[in-house]
């Protein structure tokens, strides 16, 4: 396989996963705020700032926080590099570059998804199409994941795509945790003003489609500790950081058969990070969430960088 084609497969997986998380966060965080039990969590500025922060990091002070601006920029603005429309566009472009290695069913589903997003009316979206658009995006990405698992040979092509999917999933989950952590800090006051019992933890779980399973696992109302433990360290949760690391380790081992990888290799870094998280406890994370977020983001970036350098010859 050409290194360029492998890179296309990797980034196709990443952009598909990215579009799903952006759409779901836009949907769940916005609509959950309408039923929030305190004024701070219902504040439009609070919610819109959270949406933009998750999608693109710190918000410029001169940015005009209106629903129209934020929805358009995250959803359908072709000039915003972090928008859903660009994620879908880049996913399709990368699929075009690896067309011979993926199934017709997968390519047709991705092509259909691309044309749906491209043709969606932007004015309708920002006025009253938020729920419809974001729901259809998340459903389309679920179909694509099904096509990846159900129509491709589970060989090195599949392993490369799933490396991209799981690295992106871990990255997006950490970004969502970061956004909701700051929301919980900012929303203190009023109804149950304790940080550990903030309504934002419930919203966080719903943004990652893990609320019901977290309640089933702990059998109690979400708190900061139980939420973070479930989304970071529980490898039975398919959306957790730990589960993503397990999958990344599994798929890198399909590409690297060396039992003793070099200390500067991607396989070594992935194995070391996986081992570290196997023995990490929530009290070490909860005591300094900001430090954890910075560390794991840097580690995920370094893993992706090493994979690109070793397997795709990206310098």
Short overview:
The chain has helices at residues 3-33, 39-42, 44-56, 67-75, 84-97, 104-119, 122-128, 130-151, 156-186, 199-207, 211-218, 224-232, 241-255, 266-278, 282-286, 289-311. With 315 residues, the chain is mainly α.
User: Any low-confidence stretches, pLDDT <50, length ≥5?
Assistant: none
Helix content, binned percent: over 70%
Major sheet summary line = none
Using only C-alpha atoms, the radius of gyration works out to: 19 Å
**Helix/strand order:** HHHHHHHHHHHHHHHH
Structural class of the secondary structure composition?
mainly alpha
Q: Number of DSSP helices?
A: 16
Query: Please, what is the average pLDDT?
Result: 93
Describe this structure in words.
- With 315 residues, the protein is mostly helical.
- It has 16 helices and no strands.
- It has helices spanning 3-33, 39-42, 44-56, 67-75, 84-97, 104-119, 122-128, 130-151, 156-186, 199-207, 211-218, 224-232, 241-255, 266-278, 282-286, 289-311.
- The longest helix is centred in the N-terminal third of the chain and has 31 residues, at 3-33.
- It is globular and about 55 Å long.
- The two termini are 18 Å apart.
């Amino acid at each position: 396989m050409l290194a360029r084609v492998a890179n296309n497969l990797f980034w196709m997986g990443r952009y598909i996963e990215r579009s799903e998380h952006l759409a779901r966060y836009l949907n769940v965080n916005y609509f959950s705020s309408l039923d929030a039990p305190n004024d701070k969590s219902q504040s439009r500025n609070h919610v819109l700032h959270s949406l933009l922060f998750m999608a693109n990091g710190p918000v410029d002070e001169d940015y005009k926080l209106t629903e129209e601006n934020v929805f358009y920029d995250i959803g359908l603005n072709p000039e915003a590099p972090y928008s859903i429309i660009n994620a879908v566009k880049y996913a399709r472009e990368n699929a075009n570059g690896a067309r011979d290695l993926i199934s017709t069913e997968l390519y047709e589903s991705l092509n259909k998804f691309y044309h749906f997003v491209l043709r969606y009316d932007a004015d309708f979206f920002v006025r009253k199409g938020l729920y419809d658009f974001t729901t259809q995006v998340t459903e389309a990405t679920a179909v694509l994941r099904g096509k990846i698992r159900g129509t491709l040979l589970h060989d090195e092509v599949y392993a490369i795509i799933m490396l991209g999917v799981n690295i992106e999933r871990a990255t997006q989950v950490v970004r969502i945790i970061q956004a909701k952590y700051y929301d919980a800090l900012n929303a203190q006051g009023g109804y149950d003003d304790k940080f550990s019992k903030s309504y934002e933890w419930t919203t966080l779980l719903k943004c990652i489609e893990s609320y019901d399973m977290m309640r089933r696992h702990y059998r109690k109302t979400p708190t900061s500790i139980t939420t973070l433990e479930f989304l970071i360290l529980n490898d039975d949760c398919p959306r957790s950081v730990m589960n993503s690391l397990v999958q990344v380790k599994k798929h890198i081992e399909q590409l690297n058969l060396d039992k003793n990888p070099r200390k500067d290799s991607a396989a070594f870094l992935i194995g070391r990070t996986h081992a570290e998280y196997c023995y990490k406890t929530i009290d070490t994370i909860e005591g300094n969430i900001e430090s954890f977020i910075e560390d794991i983001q840097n580690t995920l970036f370094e893993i992706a960088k090493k994979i690109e350098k070793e397997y795709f010859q990206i310098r």
